[in-house]
Amino acid sequence: MKAFSETEIRSLVSLLDEEDPRNLDRIQRDILEVGAPALPFLDELRVSGAPDVTARADALARRLHFHALQDDFRRLAAASAPDLESGAWLVARFGYPDLDEAACRGRLDALAEQVRQALPADPSPAQALQKLSSELFTVLGFCGNEKHYYDPDNSYLNRVIEQRRGIPVSLSVLYLIIARRLALPVYGVATPGHFLVGVRLGGVTSYLDAYNRGRIMTLADVQQMLAHGGYEFRPEFVAPATARDILARMLRNLISIYQKAAQADRAEMLSSLVEILQAARPAPAHPAP
Predict the structure, then answer these.
(1) pLDDT tens sequence across 163-197
(2) DSSP labels for the chain?
């Protein structure tokens, strides 16, 4: 691929006011070939250009950001066990391409440290889990966004942190990645229709509903919840979910939201990310003959 100088890139981007459709198409293809180095110049044009030029620059910037996001998803998916938190920030970048991931991670580090400092010396896992739940759901007031359930921001972890509202899977992911900082025995549970957090303490498994302010559920409660949702219980519904499956679920929720909002282009882009995750899924191991 040809290397472009800053002067060449700036000159190329300045041609987005071209009126001839054929010439404009060539210019846009050339900008896409330049790739990420064109983004600062597109951003300048988005601020200072005429409305039609600004729209072209914005569309190109979104495509370039998405191409970079696809590459990052491929790198994440190539791991045998993708990192859940890294994947959650990638999902958030779809809605917020300029996301400051380091700052977001820092806020969660601080929250985990706040919980740690409030614990007695050598706390039990039960004490740490209780304190984490108290901090998140009572002190900070994290809960389900019942009023605006289908707002895409409920699926973007940065916005969940800022608004303290989300949907079951995003709030559960938030809980899981903070709990991981505290080395707590929790895991994701991909029950149909309502994601939960599994908790193992003293050989006993219970379930935490992050959407409903950390409500603790027994297996019987989960079975009743599923029955109310029209699902017949199956043991695999409460098996630990892999990070790959959790991230795919987050993406599919967004796909459904954008489809409902008649934003088919965004839904298609997200579908390509699901395909990347699933295509890289390791083949199941077969027993030796």
Answers:
(1) 999 999 999 999 999 999 999 999 999 999 999 99
(2) -----HHHHHHHHHGGG--SHHHHHHHHHHHHHH-GGGHHHHHHHHHHS-HHHHHHHHHHHHHHHHHHHHHHHHHHHTSSS--HHHHHHHHHHHH-TT--HHHHHHHHHHHHHHHHHTSPSS--HHHHHHHHHIIIIIIS--EE--TTTT-GGGG-HHHHHHHTEE-HHHHHHHHHHHHHHTT--EEEE--TTS-EEEEEETTEEEEEEGGGTTEEE-HHHHHHHHHHTT----GGGGSBPPHHHHHHHHHHHHHHHHHHTT-HHHHHHHHHHHHHHHHTPPPPP----
pTM higher than 0.85, yes or no?
A: yes
Chain mean pLDDT for the chain:
93
Mean pLDDT, range 53-64, rounded to an integer: 90
